[in-house]
Amino acid sequence: MQDFASEFTRALSLILEGDSELWAIVLLSLRVSIFAVLISALIGMPFGAALAVARFRGRRALIILVNALMGLPPVVVGLLVYLMLSRSGPLGVLELLYTPTAMIIAQVVLVTPIMAALTRQVVEILAEEYSEQLRSLGVSRLASVPVLLWDARLALVTALLAGFGRAIAEVGAVIIVGGNINHVTRVMTTTIALETSKGNLALALALGVILIGLAIAVNAMVSALALRAEREGLSHA
């Protein structure tokens, strides 16, 4: 128990004293995850909105597929991205393997289905609510996508936060394509796994505290946005 207290005290010291190695890892983690979430949003949100309003054969099957992809096993995604980026793979010429870019690609693959599925759910409800108004204005289904996305912006921020929470906590895929290289691709989750196995519990605990803090902050923002959306819905009722 005393050993744990000692390691935890050292962990807090690393955080409060601004340890350069610790914060370099945190900043890289944030940079990779934020870029991945933004790219996922640019791909997944328009696709999810289009899927919500479009009507075509096979739409239901596509919705089921997108929902299923939300549960993609991270290590499988890491393996597939690794094969694509390896020297013998189709994108090997780009030499992206074991770089932050490879980690961003892996996270984009994981987060994009989440963005698409959550966006589809939100926009589908709005599309049904505003269908008569949009039809009276002569707005086609696909032309209504930007309007619906803008009206759903508050709920879509929640989707962004959910995607960020998924990305920042990822370890399986990023360790495969990033290699956990010191000062290059070492992020919070992979460092926690490595330093724990080495017995360097102070650094692992410090990163764990920061990671838990980020998770709490993200969930608090999601709850605040949900409460605000509920209040706005009551005020419009």
UniProtKB/TrEMBL annotation:
PROSITE patterns in UniProt: ABC_TM1
Keyword annotations: Membrane, Transmembrane, Transmembrane helix, Transport
Domain ABC transmembrane type-1 residue range list: 26-222
Membrane topology (UniProt): Multi-pass membrane protein
Segments passing through the bilayer: 22-54, 61-85, 97-118, 154-181, 201-227
GO biological process: transmembrane transport
NCBIfam families associated with the record: ABC_perm1
Annotated family: Belongs to the binding-protein-dependent transport system permease family.
Protein name as catalogued: Tungstate transport system permease protein
Organism listed in the record: Ruegeria halocynthiae
Phylogenetic lineage: Bacteria, Pseudomonadati, Pseudomonadota, Alphaproteobacteria, Rhodobacterales
